[in-house]
Amino acid sequence: MPVILDARGLCKRFGAVTAASEVNAAVEKDSVVGLIGTNGAGKTTFINMITGYLKPDQGTIAYEGRDITSLAPREITRLGICRSFQIPQLYGSLTVWENMMVGIGIVLANAGHGGFFSRGDALVPGHGRPAAEVAEHILGRFDLADYRNRNAQVLPGGIRKLLDIALTMVAKPRVLLLDEPTSGVSAQEKFGIMQMVLEAVRAEGATVLFVEHDMEVVSRFAERVLAFYDGRIIADAAPEVALADPEVRRHVVGRTKVAHA
Amino acid sequence: MTRDRTLPWLPQWAMFIMTVAIARGLVALGLLLLLRAGLISFGQALFYCLGAYAAGALGRFFRVSDIFVEMLVGGAVAALVAFVLGFLLARYRGIFFGLLSLALSMILYGLLVKTEALGSTDGFNIAPSTLFGVRPAPEWVRYSVLISAAAVAAVCALIVHRYLNTPLGRLAPAIKDNEIRVEYMGASARKAVHVKYVMAGALSGIGGALAATAVGHIDPDMAYWTTSGEFIFIAILAGTGSVVAPFVGALIYGSIHTLAYGLSPNTWQMSLGVALLLLIVFLPEGLWSVFTRYARHS
User: Which end of chain A is more exposed for a tag (fewer CB within 10 A), N or C?
Assistant: First the structure.
């Protein structure tokens, strides 16, 4: 499989703290990659650098051969790299449906259908259907249709999480970075949610990187694991190999809560 | 001079109050655009005053007094200045946006006070406006101004209404709620705010030009911060529920103002203050929420 995302020699320091030190990772198209590591190991910094929120002090990030290191988050999003958030970032005063429509509106506007005289029934690029159908379809995939008229800020935690991920789907991501998609979700629900999210995402044909603390979830869903420790990647292998690695066991697995299913 | 000759449908004073309400309503309509995105401009009088002086300068230096040209030029000058200032202001949110806009309006006030050529603190008078080259008879001036004002306001309201329903217009509450998410969905919040700021500036400029020609006199107080305060008062009074609300709000504000001034010229501000207080307590989403509440119940 060709490499879709290639990070080379990423370094990032915050004062005395090294959040990334010589991070190298080449992600293959259509793969599902799990990012593991204790808090502060550099997982979210890695995501933040790829999505343009943080600029690396050194190193480059290439997406389909194109250097995206210096682009702004919105430019990177437009290229097809989207992210969800550990703490859901929603439009709290709007309903679930309106949240979706704002996102679809942005996609339409970026494709030149946002202007004053543009038609309301323009097809959403990437989806090939009108806005309302796209919203309907995505909400259905994430089992959110029943919540459509609820305000985003009064939703239960797990539903907020799902909506946060569903919002990334409107832009038709080619690469999707999920920051702890199952945090705040009860242990029993984790597998079901992860299953649903990955099915929805893979059906749209996206490459997935997800941050996860639950090793059971990682070994079940990831095809490949990147283990972070102290700003470095200490293991990059298939889950069964990476999770058995002595260094990973000492620094990551041993310290992470393992859910016993 | 003030012959209160009643025309077929309204007394002169009522037409004047309505015209001024439309002028203020246009400014409040611009504030509505910004308020929806969570921004309060404490300096909208900057553009109101610019529009007024642009209209005044047309008559004073170019002998142009057509009301539509005045409003067009007033709006264009204000929009141009808003476009330039927008590069700075669109970077700020919350209290910084508010106070920076206030500071800019006070700079204009300071400049006008020092400019002898424009009448310094006294300002100058503006000749009654013409309509497509025709000068209406004195008793018909207010009538023609009001009709022109209503027509322009209707067009502006329709344009804003349409804009609010475009994807970029619908972005306003999203910017208010979560700007990070807006950026991560591929839109530029700063650009959207810039567009709204220019639109708000243009509307204020048109309102200023209209007020100038309706009152027949302009002075630097049009840029003073208390003028901006009046506009915010109207915008809050009206609420952001509809593009019609600012005009209704401005008319009610004008009526309270006139009434309070007539009853007690020395304490009219107090009456206004009490009105605003009652409003914030009982109708925190503005007068328009009465209509929406009624619509929901019926």
Answer: N
**Optimal mutation site among A97, A102, A172, interface B, most CBs of chain B within 10 A:** A102
Quick check: B78 and B202 in contact, CB under 8 A?
yes
- The verdict on B195 touching A (C-beta cutoff 8 Å) is no
The residue extents of the domains of chain A are 1-80+173-261, 89-171
**Domain containing B110: what range?**
12-297
Q: Residue B171 and residue A102: Cβ atoms within 8 Å?
A: yes
pLDDT (tens digit per residue) in A129-170: 999 999 999 999 999 999 999 999 999 888 999 999 999 999
For residue A97, the distance in angstroms to the closest alpha carbon of chain B comes to: 13
Residues in chain B with pLDDT < 50? 1-3
Model pLDDT for residues A237-250, shown as the tens digit of each residue? 999 998 888 888 88
**Mutant choice from B155, B185, B195, B240 vs A, greatest count of A C-beta within 10 A:** B185
